[in-house]
Amino acid sequence: xxxxxxxxxxxxxxxxxxxxxxxxxxxxxxxxxxxxxxxxxxxxxxxxxxxxxxxxxxxxxxxxxxxxxxxxxxxxxxxxxxxxxxxxxxxxxxxxxxxxxxxxxxxxxxxxxxxxxxxxxxxxxxxxxxxxxxxxxxxxxxxxxxxxxxxxxxxxxxxxxxxxxxxxxxxxxxxxxxxxxxxxxxxxxxxxxxxxxxxxxxxxxxxxxxxxxxxxxxxxxxxxxxxxxxxxxxxxxxxxxxx
Length: 243
Prior knowledge:
Largest sheet: 5 strands, parallel
Strand content: 15-25%
Distance between the termini: 52 Å
Strand order of the largest sheet: 2-1-3-4-5
Structural class: alpha/beta
CATH architecture of the largest domain: 3-Layer(aba) Sandwich
């Protein structure tokens, strides 16, 4: 039985590559940069399926020209903003994606950034790398203890909830904004703010977890300048840290 032809636009771990070689005739991108649209269309000619990444933009023009042999497209991503889903539907091509696959990893990185910002890790490693490190003095690289501080989470979806679980382990107080309040069994001790402006006012650390395009009617980007932090000022600057 002939194996189906799969267009593979990127490189993956050995386990995935081995499975691709076992189950498909792979048409791989030989370059380190994404296919151009003509190259992608050429690779898809006569193929049964496509395995893409967010670097591959599948717009309406792509779907107007893609080979009729393509039966399904899978994207190695949690989102699908790079794919015109309506155009795919018109061609009756289903699109598969991987929701939730990197929730825990993303939350780990959020805590890494939070700890790095609070303890001035970047500044410290720069001193070491440049040979400017000096014997410690009482006021050298003073940071901020995160225990007891308020972490504001803008967007309390899967990743936001995973960040909250980790932050509680450091003794942080959780406040959040989301389009709707979470059930008590999920929110636990987290404090809900119906208005994101209120969340900004109380947050000493802030992590933005909203999906691009979510919360658009109440997003903070155009309103940040109107808010002033009322807590923990240092040298006249607000100590809110955005993660």
